[in-house]
Amino acid sequence: MEMIGERLYELRKDAGLTQDDLALILKINKHSISSYERDKSEPPDAIKISIAKYFNVSVDYLLGVTDIPFALDQRRTSLRLPESFPEEKLKELMNYAEYLLYISKKK
């Protein structure tokens, strides 16, 4: 199931952008943004990549492959969590990682 329209709409709204704003950022026309958001047409791969980079999410998130928006940061090592890892525990995991970083700096 294609989710890019719904995800694009949510990302744009969360960023406080209008369709006109996003069209200027992506260097495409407003009608294309509208068409993508309503799932009337699918953006070309290059536009999907531009959207993902701008909003700092993965293309997998845009397409609905995952519900976790994974920030795009090529400098970081990825940690693959088990598929059954509860999403509500991600914040706790991040807090623990920050704690580990804190105690490693104290040494």
Q: What's the average pLDDT?
A: 88
Radius of gyration: 17 Å
Number of strands: 0
Low-confidence stretches: none
General shape = elongated
The span between the termini is 49 Å
Number of helices: 6
Percent helix, as a range, is: 55-70%
> By helix and strand content, what is the structural category?
mainly alpha
The description of the largest β-sheet is: none
Helix-strand sequence: HHHHHH
The percent range for strand residues is: under 5%
Walk me through this protein's architecture.
Helices cover 56% and strands 0% of the residues. The protein has 107 residues and is mainly α. The longest helix has 17 residues, at 90-106. It is elongated and about 55 Å long. 13% of the residues are buried.
What layout of secondary structure does this protein have?
Blueprint: H1 4-14, H2 19-26, H3 30-37, H4 45-55, H5 59-63, H6 90-106
Helix pairs in contact: 2-3
Highlighted features:
mainly alpha, about 110 residues
Summarize this structure briefly.
It is built from 6 helices and no strands.
